[in-house]
Design a protein that fits this description.
Layout: H1 2-42, H2 48-76, H3 82-109, H4 141-159, H5 169-191, H6 196-200, H7 208-226, H8 242-261, H9 269-297, H10 302-316, H11 325-350, H12 358-376, H13 379-382, H14 395-425, H15 432-437, H16 439-444
Helix pairs in contact: 2-3, 2-4, 2-8, 3-4, 3-5, 4-5, 4-7, 5-7, 5-14, 7-12, 7-14, 8-9, 8-10, 9-10, 9-11, 10-11, 10-12, 11-12, 12-14
Length: 449
């Protein structure tokens, strides 16, 4: 028995000796395997739910421009200019899409400096079937690229509301092409694409600075440089069909859920909260504008309530991923009142002709929203470090202010220079006779009956 036990022990010892090299190899391989496993765990994994939501959001934001903005603006101009106005939205959609493919996307979102993106995606070079962007790692980069394209489309299209009924179509096309590459793409990079404003900690969830302040300020510069419409202040320039504008505003509201909730880059709790606060802010702003107009002018107008809703949507855009429903309510009320003042009192006091209140609603609403994001952002919604005044970070208000001022300065200066160049080359404005007769027949050879 003792012999058998000794034999078993000897056999076990021999087996252990034989296993030692294998154990040593396993231990040696473990450190190398650990990083490999970690890398595999961190590798982007496409998510079908996120992809489906981002595809849907892309369609919703495209709908905001065509037909949403086209109808919203088209209904507010005089009958003789309705086709030229909707043509602007449609042509801009086509123009910016091609420019985005060539170089716009690369300048905004390809790795580069803190000032502008690189040329790594020029002509969509390197765009693969299943590649991803660092800002949206669970959806194909093709989807992220198209989603961002819809933002690049609507921003210049918003500017057109400021110079409606008096700018040459050819000048408009040249201006929009240059503006999208010189102004929009760099500012998008500064805030979202790895630029210096993002490094500063500027919070802009879905484009209050990139889209609305940008478009509004450019619109104001356009209105000042091009000048007032013939007969402004003396002739009746009432909207020709507010039903079109109501339909357009309604499409904008619905599309804005893609704009804001889509900026969560996936089907997530953040998207759900962004959708909720968007609805509350829009409704609150619409009511605030309506009641302000009712009190000051005696009647609540259709144009007023839809303008108020758009103002609320604008203001909640930078804050959508950072605030609670109560914060959204406050932002909506404040935005409705301030945008009402901007589109009426401020415009009258300064005397500029911002035809469709691109600056009064988008510029002022975007600025109000950017600053109030610094007030109402809370960490429990926005995530670590993303908090504002009410959550103990008063400095965020100043950060938001500096971010807005930088964008205002660059946009105003660059827009002015672009306008002057285009004016020197081909002229900005239609002739007096063309403006009086109408842009539809003179620029496009068509009219509506």
């Amino acid at each position: 028995m003792k012999f058998k036990t000794n034999s078993v022990l000897a056999g076990a010892g021999a087996a252990a000796v034989l296993l030692l090299p294998a154990l040593a190899l396993a231990q040696a391989a473990a450190p190398a395997a650990a990083p490999a496993a970690a890398a595999a765990a961190e590798a982007p994994k496409l998510d079908t739910g996120d992809t489906a939501w981002m595809l849907t959001s892309t369609l919703l934001v495209l709908m905001m421009t065509i037909p949403g903005l086209a109808l919203f603006y088209g209904g507010m101009v005089r009958k003789k200019n309705v086709l030229s106005t909707v043509m602007q939205s449609f042509a801009i959609t086509c123009l910016i899409s091609v420019l985005w493919l060539i170089v716009g996307y690369s300048l905004a979102f390809a790795p580069g400096s803190t000032i502008v993106g690189g040329l790594g995606r020029i002509f969509m070079a390197g765009l693969t079937l299943d590649g991803v962007h660092d800002l949206a790692k669970t959806v194909p980069e093709t989807v992220f690229m198209c989603f961002q394209l819809t933002f690049a489309i609507i921003t210049p299209a918003l500017i057109a509301g400021a110079f409606a009924e008096r700018m040459k179509f050819s000048a408009m096309m040249w201006f929009m092409a240059l503006w999208s590459l010189i102004v929009y793409a760099p500012i998008a990079h500064w805030v979202w694409g790895g630029g210096f404003l993002g490094d500063w900690g500027v919070l802009d969830f879905a484009g209050g600075t990139v889209v609305h302040i940008n478009a509004g300020v450019a619109g104001l510069v356009c209105a000042l440089v091009i000048g007032k419409r013939k007969g402004y202040g003396t002739e009746n320039m009432a909207p020709h069909n507010l039903v079109y504008s109501v339909i357009g505003a309604s499409l904008l509201w619905v599309g804005w859920f893609g704009f804001n909730a889509g900026s969560a880059a996936g089907a997530s709790p953040n998207a759900g909260m962004a959708m909720a606060v968007t609805q509350f802010a829009a409704a609150a702003a619409a009511l605030a504008w309506m009641f302000a107009e009712w009190v000051t002018r005696g009647k609540p107008s259709v144009l007023g309530i839809i303008s108020g809703a758009v103002g609320g949507l604008v203001a909640i855009t930078p804050a959508a991923g950072y605030v609670t429903p109560m914060g959204a309510l406050a932002i909506g009320i404040i935005a409705g009142l301030v945008c009402f003042w901007g589109a009426t009192g401020l415009k009258k006091a300064m005397g500029y002709d911002d035809s469709l209140d691109a600056f009064g609603v988008h510029g002022i609403g975007g600025f109000v929203g950017a600053i109030l994001t610094g007030v109402f952002a809370v960490e429990v919604i926005g995530g670590t470090g993303k908090k504002g005044l009410i959550d103990g970070n008063a400095g965020q208000v100043l950060t938001q202010l500096w971010g807005a001022l930088v964008c205002i300065a660059w946009c105003a200066i660059a827009t002015f220079i672009i306008l002057k160049i285009v004016d020197a080359l081909i002229g900005l404005r239609v002739t007096t006779e063309e403006e009086i007769e109408g842009l539809d027949i003179n620029l496009h050879g068509e009219t509506i009956h």
